[in-house]
Structures are given as C-alpha cells and as structure tokens.
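[step 3/7] fold_predict: job queued, chain A
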Amino acid sequence: MEIREMEPSDWHTVSKIYQEGIDTGFATFEKSIPSYEAWDRAHMKSCRFVANDNGQILGWAALSPVSSRCVYGGVAEVSIYVGKNQRGRGVGKVLMERLISESERQGLWTLQSGIFPENTASIKLHGMVGFRYIGKRERVGRLDGVWKDNLLFERRSKVVGID
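[step 4/7] structure written:
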C-alpha cells in the first residue's frame, strides 16, 4: 500500500468511499456527496491523500480550515474515510500518519476532529495517533431527524507552534 497525493481524477472513487461513510449513519452529518468543485473549495489544497494498493484506492484523508480568521491559520479539521471492504487493515492509521506529518510540514499546529460516539473505530484510530478527547457537543445537529452528539478530539503538534 502506498499513500499518495489525491488527484482530481481520483474523485470518482473517493466519492464512492465517502458515500459508504455516509451510508453508515455515523461518519458525517452530510446526506449526499457534493460535486468535486464544492468539495475542492471546502478543503485545503495541501494535505489530501489516498491510500492506493495496486491501482485500487482503499481510503482517503483531507483537511479543511476551521476558520478564515488568520489566528486559526494553523488549525484544521480532519476528514478520513476508509472503504467498507478495507476497514480493519490499518489503512486509516497509515493515512492519518501521513496527514499528520504533512500537516506539520505545512505549519499546522492543531488538527481536530468531530466524531459521533457510535463511530468507535474512528475514536480508536484518533487515539492511536495521538489525538486526545477534549469534550462533547451535545445534540449539536440533527441527522435523519435525530439529535446527535459530537465528540471533539484534537492533536497538538510537538514540532509546530510550541514556542
């Protein structure tokens, strides 16, 4: 398995994996896949990766800015999705490790994630790569008419923003 930069031509497969996450009911509040153009605008141009094994994309990861305010320029939100038939193979961990190292090269000092409590695999993954639980937003949004909690996790860089 190799981790490489995501290309626009990967969108067809990336969006299918994203849909598989949506279909779980506990990966995102999103209900439909955006166009590539909308997704592209919402995510940082750097720190977009796919896990590839012999030409098959197994999963993807990308970052979104948390704010347009300059004081939050070093803080980004993680999106990470692994294909339903690839889960449990370490794909997410390898993607996350690459995302972390590249985010630090890009000068980001904090990565954050909001995770549904039911998404135990994502909670475990974030813990394995150094994220810490910082709190819970109760009933922060509705999904299919049901109020959902969102657990907040963050990872502070040990090499960027420590002075």
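[step 5/7] annotate
The two ends are 36 Å apart (CA to CA).
The mean pLDDT is 94.
exit 0
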